[in-house]
Amino acid sequence: MSASLVLHVRDPAYVPASVADMEQVLLQVGLIGKSWGDSAQQRYLIGEHFLQLVTFLGCAPAIELEPPAKGNTEFCHVGISGIYAAPRFVADTQSVLPRCPHCRKRYADWQFAIQSWRTDPAYRTHCPACQRSLSPTELDWCQSAGFGHFFIYIYNIYPREAIPTEALLNTLSKVTGLTWDYFYTRESCELEGD
Ligand SMILES: [Zn+2]
């Protein structure tokens, strides 16, 4: 599993009607083009506006945008995860270090908080530093984890090699009526089971 830039709706409770609906949204904004591959997951070549919607940062190496002849997946393309029955927590690695959104102190015991959240999505804990009540979904994961019923993967992007433009996040927000966010994964640690 290669590195990805992952887009998701910030509200972990949101469930889209179907993958086809989300596909329409991404086609409309020009992030995706033709569908590609024959895997179980929906994958797409980049769309006509992709390079205006995702900014590659200065020192990024040459990014492969075309599918290689041998049919492997080592190039930049887009995938839509399935729509999961329960919201999932996806993290870059097991060693992510979220911060309290109020006092910015590190929240070290997040694995326990995530396990509790999996059992009960309404679970709340409190910050040991400032004592404020918070849900694990409110922690600042510093672009290394996210929650949702589905995720849009932009494959073969390493952390901070590229970022979604404000325009992309704004357009997705406008089309869906929801706030979008992003993070990066390298191992795709899905701690939430099916
Ligand atoms: Zn705090």
Characterize this entry briefly.
By secondary structure, this protein is an alpha+beta fold.
Topology, element by element:
Elements: E1 4-9, H1 19-29, E2 32-35, E3 42-46, H2 50-53, E4 54-56, E5 78-80, E6 88-91, H3 110-119, E7 125-126, E8 133-134, E9 145-148, E10 152-155, E11 162-164, H4 166-176, E12 180-185, E13 189-190
What does this structure look like?
This protein has two domains: 4-86 and 143-190, no CATH class; 97-140, no CATH class. The radius of gyration is 17 Å and the shape is globular. The protein is an alpha+beta fold. The two termini are 19 Å apart. Residues 189-194 have low confidence and may be disordered. It contains four helices and 13 strands. Zinc ion (ZN) is lined by residues 100, 102-103, 105, 127, 129-130, 132.
Key words describing this protein structure:
19% helix, 13 strands, 3-stranded antiparallel sheet, alpha+beta, 4 helices, binds zinc ion, 194 residues, 2 domains
Order of helices and strands: EHEEHEEEHEEEEEHEE
Total individual domains? 2
Q: Give, in spatial order, the strands making up the sheet with the most strands.
A: 2-3-5-10-1-12
The proportion of residues in beta strands is 15-25%
Amino- and carboxy-terminal Cα gap = 19 Å
Mean pLDDT: 89
The shape is: globular
From the alpha carbons, calculate the radius of gyration and give it in angstroms: 17 Å
Largest sheet: 6 strands, antiparallel
